[in-house]
Amino acid sequence: MDLVTQGILGASVGQVGFQKSLGRRALGWGAAIGMLPDLDVLVRFSSNPFAEILYHRGVTHSLWFGPVLGPVLGYLVWRWYQAKGKDDSLSAWVGLMIWALLTHPLLDLFTVYGTQLLAPFSNHRFALSAIPIIDPVYSLTLLASVLVGLFFPLRRLLVTTCSALALILTTGYLFLGLAQNEKAEDLCRSQLATESYSSIPSVKAYTTMFQIFLRRLVVEDNHSLRIGFLSTWAPKTIEWTTFEKPKDIPSYNFLKDPDVAIFTWFTSQRYFVTYGPTNRQITITDNRFGFPGPSLLGLWGVEFEINEKGDRVTPIAKVEFPIGSVGLATILEIFEKAFF
């Protein structure tokens, strides 16, 4: 999820579990520590063009990171407040740090790009594609409970009840989004069964933007890739755009190239190859996220050139496909497709 939402989640965790012991400091520290794992985005300043792909949502987003680092951070903060004359509970600070760090990767798990929950022991990316990376319903629900705690700090029962309810509702919302993904895939397979397929090909549903009901469907077989959009709120027949797989590429040796393999690993093998006849230009697009128009096949990808043997012969360049400015008109169009 976006950094702000991760901070709100951390504050909410601090509020529901630790405000009684630590006061409103639990909100501030919960927010700060909840955002801490995303410090790994600093790798984007590396000279390695693949640093962000490789290391963002890596070790700092693993399941062990919170339980290992949390006690250390909790102890240090506890000692700091002890030096200032505060008689706090060490267990409360440790618990806050662990939970604020642990809920961060668990939330990222429900997004389209997922996270490496077992890093560095495994680089597998776990992704459930349940909710968008930016989801106002999820974020604002948690924010409302945090604001209650800020404005009514002495009304502990009210604050705890609102915080607990917000966490329950938003957790349920994650699984509601997961159910929408499964529903979209089931509706897609039902439609494909009535179309000209002897067997049902690979079907994957992905989130779009701002809400959980409009899904991007990607259908792939040996010859082509189909992309369409479906509202699980108001289902209609999916209108497909078909991309034929290139037949004249001399070889796919470039897929064995270490740098190319990094990109295809990041996409969880959900990519599409297009081939420009001039100079044998190859473009590989991440097909998990995109919108009608220039970015329909995918929002971004990489390109390079190959020789007659299919080996990469030029450096890899990142390419992005425009979706236009995400203004009010775009937002209204997305919600119209989702609900009408």
UniProtKB/TrEMBL annotation:
Question: What organism, scientifically named, is this protein from?
Answer: Candidatus Finniella inopinata
Regions crossing the membrane: 63-81, 93-114, 126-152, 158-179
Instruction: Return the InterPro entries for the record.
Output: Transcription_regulator (IPR053170), YdjM-like (IPR007404)
- Coiled-coil segments on the chain, per record: none
* Signal sequence extent: none
**Which GO molecular function annotation, any one, does this entry have?**
hydrolase activity
Q: Which Pfam families match?
A: YdjM
- This protein is called what? Metal-dependent hydrolase
Question: Which keywords appear in this protein's UniProt record, sorted alphabetically?
Answer: Hydrolase, Membrane, Transmembrane, Transmembrane helix
Q: What top-level branch of life does the organism fall under?
A: Bacteria
